[in-house]
Amino acid sequence: MSPRTTVLASALLLAAFPAFAQTAPTVAREQVGNRTSENIPAIPPPLVEQLNRYQNTRGATFAGWRGDCMLISTRFAETAQAHRVCQPMGMREQLTFYPEPLAAIATAPAKSKLDGFVFGKDVGGNEFWQLHWFDLKSRNTTLLTDGKARNQGPLFSHDGQRFAWSSTARNGKDTDIWVMDFATKQPRTLVTEGGQWNAMDFSPDGKRLLVMKYVSAAESYPGVVDVDSGKLEMFPVDGGKASFNGFKFAPDGKSVYFISDEPLDGKAQEFHTLRYHNPATRKFDVLTASTPWDVVDLEISDDGKHLAYTTNEDGIYKLHVLALPSHKPVKLPELPIGLVVNLGFSPDSKRLAVTMNSATSPSDVYVIEPGSTKLTRWTQSEVGGLDPSKFVAPTLVHYPTFDSVDGKPRTIPAFYYRPANAPAGKKLPVVINIHGGPEGQSLPTFNPTAQFLANELGVAMLLPNVRGSEGYGKTYLGLDNADKREDSVKDIGALLDWVAQQPELDATRVGVYGGSYGGYMVLSSLMHYSDRIRAGVDIVGISHFGTFLKNTESYRRDLRRAEYGDERDPQMAKVFEEISPLNHADRIRSKLFVAQGKNDPRVPYTEAEQIVKAVRDNGQPVWYLLFDDEGHGFRKKSNVDYFTAATMLFWQQNLTGDGTK
Q1: What is the CATH number of domain 10-54+394-656?
Q2: Could you state, in order of their start, the residue ranges of all structural domains in the chain?
Q3: What is the pTM of this model?
Q4: Can you list the positions of beta strands (E) in 113-195?
Q5: How far is Cα 78 from Cα 387, in angstroms, rounded to an integer?
Q6: Does residue 40 surpass a pLDDT of 80?
Q7: Across-strand partners of 593?
Q8: Contact 364, 355 (CB under 8 A)
Q9: Is 584 in a helix, a strand, or coil?
Q10: Sign of torsion, CA 157 201 225 216?
Q11: 10 Å Cβ neighbour count for 271?
Q12: What are residue 191's phi and psi, to 5 degrees?
């Protein structure tokens, strides 16, 4: 995700606001609890009622096994909490009841004497997660971390005696690896090399820990550390620089399975492949050499007999299981087309739980028995009383953009949600939804907003994966780096050209929508194409790369510099001045809605407030929404509901003509 608070330098202010700026429009401000809204009209009750069922859809995601029961994360009130389910389609027993949603959940291993789970929780979206132990027998909760630092990535050893995680507790800037003997709850630092480190997997005997230093989406470094002595050994990286994802010990505790795009036989690799390596025998295998797509995740059963992994094939996640040690594929049931995530083998290793999500069905948990075609559904989440048969499934389209590859126009993939019952001869308004990251990827997941736009407002939605998106190879991922940042904005311009060529789409009624880096893309698109875009919604977006890098939390700054460029470099600073929407606010003539969380540690709320002021100072009205109890995006149902209703009203007023101005 893209990464946050000081006053702007006077020189920057002069550059952003021309001397001939018009009188700023009058601002109508309303304060309701933790919500501040400016210029947002009252939401019409009929719209609230129309939205109600779409806003009451919910999903369930797998969080781990506890014996024959499993933990899931789902929302029944304001926020997602931990629940226990003990049989297929069984009752969901809610275990936690916090006003804040839970972050990562790690269940105690089956081989341990522990009965419970670790979970993370922050305050108001500030992402300074604290890790807590929840004991299922006593129902007591114990704080494990210091109450102040940012803590994430909880990981148990296989016997549950040791516990590792990542934390900024040492200096607030670096993300170190910490470890504790779980019985004593006494923490100590294990890896303090600087940068961002993550614990990946304990050896079967708990004496060694696989670790990873993350630099960027294209660069990470694996190693192993002796847990008792703290001795760190980094593994050589073929080619000197590569990206790694999953990293796990094989059942023998000596060899490893990992996901990487390292060169093979001296040849650069576009995609992440699943690999096996035994250092003792020097045996090395690429297990997915024939798959021209990224391997995303891997999981190994406790009995060491099966390995599960997923591939991302043009935005569709596919599940695979291999028998170990033969690496032969295992028969699986046919799964719905969509996403398969959160893999987890049961304690007896006979079952594999997964979370499945599709464009027409919210997330739910299913259980597979490797080697058979049996598929058992464990949860069935609600869709607000809507008729699922009327949900719109997107189609995958590819449109040409401005440059070429091997003499042919480069094409950009996009998912296209088209209203099913559009009146003949009537052109459809369009919302272009741009993902964040920037190395994110839009996927055909269940999207109640897209369904509401299609079925209730008659609006098409396009989700492009512009250059810089992950999932399409290393070259594509790097096409927007540093001074090529605006090339991804040109891909939106090319999409506007494509929209104009579609007989069913109305190129005069186009809106753009995006969060985080996608928010920057919204602002930049309005900066370049205000004559072709009617309106834009920017959620927690970057308005100036220089101020963003200066004010983002210190633990994120170097990670973001690796992606966007270093603002301390005069040449890069010049590029930032040229491409940042804040410096060209006078060119934003479309209607604008900016939404922000006050506690955002990644993109500070000052990024929102400075672009709102700059656009208003040029005579343009702006809707502005600020939640004091949210961070980088909105997670509390009442806040999400209000933001969604305001956004739909914004589209009605500016795209469909149905709202009252």
Answers
A1: 3.40.50.1820
A2: 10-54+394-656, 236-381
A3: 0.91
A4: 116-121, 130-135, 141-143, 151-156, 162-167, 176-181, 186-191
A5: 24
A6: yes
A7: 537, 623
A8: yes
A9: helix
A10: negative
A11: 18
A12: -125, 120
- In degrees, rounded to 5, the angle at the alpha carbon of residue 595 between the alpha carbons of residues 560 and 622 is 120
Q: Is 46 strand, coil or helix?
A: helix
CB 430 within 8 A of CB 506: yes
Task: Average the pLDDT over 25-53 and give the result.
Answer: 94
Q: CA nearest 368: which of 346, 393, 394, 347?
A: 346
Enter the tokens of residue 251.
């059942």
Residue appearing with tokens 């036989």: 265
Would the CA dihedral through 233, 238, 240, 241 be positive or negative? negative
The pair of three-digit structure tokens given for residue 497, joined into one six-digit string? 């050209």
With vertex at residue 101, the alpha carbon angle to CA 596 and CA 138, rounded to the nearest 5 degrees, is: 160
Q: What is the DSSP string of 331-389?
A: ------SSEEEEEEE-TTSS-EEEEEEETTEEEEEEEE-TTS--EEE-----BTT--GG
Question: What's domain 236-381's superfamily in CATH?
Answer: TolB, C-terminal domain (2.120.10.30)
580-629: pLDDT as tens digits: 999 999 999 999 999 999 999 999 999 999 999 999 999 999 999 999 99
Cα–Cα distance between 246 and 441 in angstroms, integer? 19
> Residue 230 contacts by C-beta under 8 Å, 6 or more apart in sequence?
190, 191
